[in-house]
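REVIEWER CHECKLIST
Item 1: Sequence provided? yes
Item 2: Single chain? yes
Item 3: Sequence as submitted:
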Amino acid sequence: MRQAEARTRVREQGRGGPLALRSAVGSEWIKLWSVRSTWWSVAASMFLMTVCAGIMGMDFANDVERGETKDGLTMAVGEPATGSVLLAQFAVVALAMAVITAEFATGSIRTTLTADPRRGRMLFAKTAVVVAVTTPLAALLALAGVGIGRFTLGSYAITSSGAVAGDIAAITAYLVLTAILTVGLGALLRSPVATLSVVLTVMLALPMLIATEAADILPGSAGMNLLDGDATAAAILAAWALTAQLAGWAALHRRDI
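Item 4: Structure as written out by the authors:
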């Protein structure tokens, strides 16, 4: 009986069954948390979010008290958080990027593909682990940003449970989709420098350089619209994340390691 079960497991691994997928995801999970860069990225994202949100909240409150503000006398408690996510995403992108580009840089990708020669499954496992980590991390960052914003804005804060929930959902969706896009680009470009450069260009630089309505279909502009409360922009950013994943999958299958 045990021999039959063992043979079944081997067949499932070879054919890409659920046991093989679970093993691949488990392996990627262990690898992710076994390096210090993951912990540094998590800590850096929290630091960037809280510090930036705190500065934005305090600056607004001080401007109101000095009569120097031109944006009204109140601010939504989620605004410092949504503004700070553009800086905090640097650490989240670094975490997602390192999951795949670090192995190409060191050559350890050969060992990974020897253990699991199915390249599509390998990419899926890496992406699944990144999503599993960035989803609660993004939600925690959003909560921290909103909390810091509420504290620093003081009596100048506008609190609405519906608006706060929307801001938290938008920040979480933005960071998770950006992480998925980053993993896909990492598989496509393989280089840490190239991946970081392209991600930051499409997510930050292009929205600033292209100020037309047509730019709304770009990933960076869609992300900013999502943070501004446009829920439909999430579909555009998700489409770009899926496109990056498919491009990474195609590159993995087409190129030799």
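Item 5: Key structural point noted by reviewer: Confidence is low (pLDDT under 50) at residues 1-14.
Item 6: Recommendation: ____
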